[in-house]
């Protein structure tokens, strides 16, 4: 009987030792998971932050790119019209001809270089100047000439029929009109350039909206917003960059 009791005691001790070993193994595994997942979570959050910061920088560049393109487009008209001088009537009440330094001869057709602007600006007003001629032509090419003060035009193919702008929308020949793209919800990456063309381009998350507002007869406000991170939670706003600048007659 005594031997039987001793065997039972040894069996109970073995069971107890095995139970503690299993619990210790579970605790050890849990601690190991915490030790691994903690730094991994920090690393993943760090990568996400770095990616968002990089995309924010790109979005800022994409915003400023359109503003600089608009300024260059304006300057193209200023350069064409800068040498324009006027011939007035004897009483000074109207302009009867325009003279260019190119050949020095007066002409009766209102042109800046080879750009015919007589169709959409009254140059026969005595208040006309080369600067005003260039500015009015610039507004006409943007289809802004009929806007009232504080009225806006939005270029965003995602929500507006006007279309979207990229660098290719601005013609190098001022005789041509601005050429918005009719479909450009997301910009496409081509090497190091972003455009609306999907040909051989990689789709990106960037969405660009350009708002032009007439704030005076000689100035427009340019507001460019670029979305660089879409929200995955309902009710949360997308992350975007907005750059505001002003373009003046010069």
Question: Can you offer a commentary on this structure?
Answer:
This protein is of the alpha+beta class. The protein has a domain at 52-79 and 129-248. 37% of the residues lie in helices and 23% in strands. It has two helices and twelve strands, in the order αβββββαβββββββ. The strands form four sheets. Strands 6-10-11-12 form a four-stranded antiparallel β-sheet. The protein has a three-stranded antiparallel β-sheet with strand order 1-2-3, with no helix packed on it. Strands 8-7-9 form a three-stranded antiparallel β-sheet, with no helix packed on it. Strand 4 (111-112) and strand 5 form a beta hairpin. The longest helix is centred in the first third of the chain and has 80 residues, at 2-81. Mean pLDDT is 76; it is low at 101-109.
